[in-house]
Amino acid sequence: MENNKIAVGLDIGTTKIVAMIGRKNEYDKIEVVGIGKAKSLGVKRGVVSNITQTIQSIQQAVDEAESVSGVKIEEVVVGIAGQHIRSLHHSDYITRSTSDEVIEDADIDDLVNQVHKLVMLPGEEIIHVLPQEFKVDSQADIKEPIGMYGGRLEANFHVVVGQVSSIRNIGRCVKSAGLGLNEITLEPLASASAVLSQEEKEAGVALIDIGGGTTDLAIFKDGIIRHTAVIPFGGNVITEDIKEGCSIIEKQAELLKTKFGSAWPGENKETEIVSIPGLRGREPKEITLKNLSKIIHARVQEIIEHVYLEIKNYGHETAKGKLIAGIVLTGGGSQLKHLRQLVEYITGMDARIGYPNEHLAGDSDEALSSPSYATAVGLLMKGLEIEEGKEEVEEEEIVEEIVTNVVEQHEEIEEVVEEVQPVVKEKSKPKKKSFFEKFAEGLKDFLDNAE
């Protein structure tokens, strides 16, 4: 594959906006050629709340990525999250006009398009239609129906729905920042493709992406997405609680959380104290790390319990739905000390921190494999996938064009032959064939053989 196919992932988060430019190297791994980030000021809980500020932040991130890489960004793949996202299950079928031909991609596209026409609640729009298992005639549990014979094609779908206005607002911000919108993808799906291995998706795994404004959940089993949810709490509510509980400003609360915070209060001794400078000449504040951890613990526990409820709703406790690979934590919030132990304690499931380095080239910058870039890497992967798809379509079109040209030439030659034949017949003497006739016959033989 050529190395010039470049794609861009744009992660519009609550705390930061990241633009990541990359391409595939010869080993099919992703080489990030440029990254830009900007503080996100116009986004609350994953939803754009201030258009002007969001446009500025997007432009800032894009400019930075462009200057680092020397590449001009034209189109981006954007992630969407926010508390307005919900998912539902739906099954639908099509009856094929002929069961004598095998099922092709076109049939699956027809089925997916039919689901896209589902009537949603007012103000809602379908973002993704993800097929789960298929059923051909009466044969159930088919993963891949392409190439099979059958008259009725049926499937269960995982349908992700979001608010029209929120989706439009994101589109507007991207377009106003002077960029083309290649696709909008659900953020938990992007993060999942960046940090999960195929084995985990087969065994059953829950991906928890703890961002600044939202916590996203994606559950896989047997290699198929089974459940998605967006919970409207994230790292920012923890910072907010520290700010309120310790009566300090947000900047200090954020620093305390990242530098000294822990989700497990038992770890800290009563004697560990941090001193925080007072505002404008006021006395400094003394905060015990035990208190800090208690505040963090209370809020993190609430977030995990919310997520665990979703995992139980999916059916983790049933024999068929058991998630053998447990939980993978990613996103900026997953870097909180002792979070993994707390998650294991509350859910009783194995947990690990997910780093998006599985698909990155070996010589990538260390910083890129931070969990806080998981979504951006996933969106970039999606962008590259779309580019490859476009390349295949272009190749098909070129082949079609060549075939059409050959057919047209073929027809033109036949016309010449037909015009030449009557003249030949008139002039021909018995027994002896003229040059023209030989030429015409030879050509006709050649064409017949070619057919």
Please give the structural blueprint.
Blueprint: E1 6-12, E2 16-24, E3 30-39, E4 43-44, E5 47-48, H1 51-69, E6 75-80, E7 86-95, H2 105-116, E8 124-136, E9 139-142, E10 152-163, H3 164-176, E11 180-186, H4 187-195, H5 198-203, E12 205-210, E13 215-221, E14 224-231, H6 235-246, H7 250-260, E15 273-276, E16 285-288, H8 289-314, E17 327-330, H9 339-347, E18 351-353, H10 374-427, H11 435-450
Parallel strand pairs: 1-6, 6-11, 12-17, 17-18
Antiparallel strand pairs: 1-2, 2-3, 4-5, 7-10, 8-9, 8-10, 12-13, 13-14, 15-16
How would you summarize what this structure contains?
This protein has 451 residues and is of the alpha+beta class. 41% of the residues lie in helices and 26% in strands.
In CATH terms, what is the architecture of the domain at 198-355? 2-Layer Sandwich
Please state roughly what percent of the residues sit in beta strands, choosing from under 5%, 5-15%, 15-25%, 25-35%, 35-45% or over 45%.
25-35%
CATH class of the domain at 198-355: Alpha Beta
Element string (H = helix, E = strand): EEEEEHEEHEEEHEHHEEEHHEEHEHEHH
Q: Specify Rg, calculated over alpha carbons.
A: 30 Å
Report how far the terminal alpha carbons are from each other: 33 Å
Helix segment tally: 11
- Return residue spans where pLDDT drops below 50 for at least 5 consecutive residues: none
Molecular shape: elongated
Average pLDDT works out at 87
Please estimate the helix content. Answer: 40-55%
